[in-house]
Amino acid sequence: MGRTIKIRVPGTSANCGPGFDCLGVSCTIYNDMELTLLQEPELQIFVEGEGADNIPTDDRNLAWKSIQKLLCSCHAEEEYKGAIIRMKNGIPLSRGLGSSAAAIVGALKAANVLLGNPLDRRGLLKIATEIEGHPDNVAPAIFGGFTVSLLNDGIPDCFSFMPRIPLNLVVAVPDFHLSTKAARSALPLEVPLKDAVFNVGRAALLVGALLKGNAAFLRNAFDDALHQPYRAKLIPGMYDVFHSAREAGALGVAMSGAGPCIIAYATDGMEAIGLAMTEAFHRHEVEARFLTLGIDKRGAHIVK
Asked: Which of 20, 169, 208, 244 could be bridged to 293 by S-S, CB 3.0 to 4.6 A?
């Protein structure tokens, strides 16, 4: 039996309103992954918590596929042909809180540690982005905080920061799944120039306000014209939930990733905001609960 490592990975929210495919934030909700690499071609996968009945426990498992990709990248696939993987999931599945990114990052981080850390965090970001397709969720899962990510000739890069505003994240979690594929298919191939300009201004304003610590500018900074208007039809009552959150005191509101979770950003009054959001969903015959989260500072890390 080989050495075992346990990794904790935060959930994430991508886009953050106007930052389509480039902004993300790490949240204080977590998946734990325990990994043992085996020299024998044997695979055992155990899942508990969120998604336990829906996550494959064979070679289709995303965590195992991610481990295999890292082993190949580090030329260790002949040394380690199997694994024991134990997953304890706190992140809701297919809700826009980065459950797939957490599986990928947890697996890559765990395998990398067991191999003696041949890759730094940017090396892990590169492989995670290749698996996920874009860096907006995997970057905050690796680095923590808010992240701004981009691709240079297919190579991801990002910087992370903690805002100078004591933000809390109030997440309304509706009782239905929404696949990223379905959410992507709702988007147009082209958008009007005025909508692109709209988003560029607000994404810049959002990052600047968070770094400067000026909460007054956040009230207009989370608005979006590139993806939320096209995906609204997939989430009953979405704009009513937005309005209710703002009326209850939220500084800004946005779809979390590709949805269907809706995330409100606030410094106080989180209980009232959460109740207002779930009540708005109920008016549209959608059952929902809410979570009050903070911003995770560490990203994926070893649990002793």
From this structure: 169
Beta carbons of 122 and 43 less than 8 angstroms apart: no
Q: What value does the mean pLDDT of the chain take?
A: 95
Q: What are the tens digits of pLDDT across the range 103-121?
A: 999 999 999 999 999 999 9
The number of C-alpha atoms within 13 Å of 42 and in the hemisphere containing its C-beta is 9
Residue 123 contacts residue 138 (beta carbons within 8 Å) = no
Residue with tokens 């998946």: 31
**26 CB burial (10 A radius; 0-12, 13-18, 19+):** buried
Domains defined for the chain, CATH in brackets: 4-161+296-302 (3.30.230.10), 168-293 (3.30.70.890)
Encoded tokens for 192: 């009007």
What pLDDT score was predicted for residue 184? 87
Residue bearing tokens 């979405």: 238
**CA 76 to centroid of chain Cα atoms:** 29
User: Distance between CA atoms of 221 and 206, rounded to whole angstroms?
Assistant: 5
16 token code pair = 């953050």
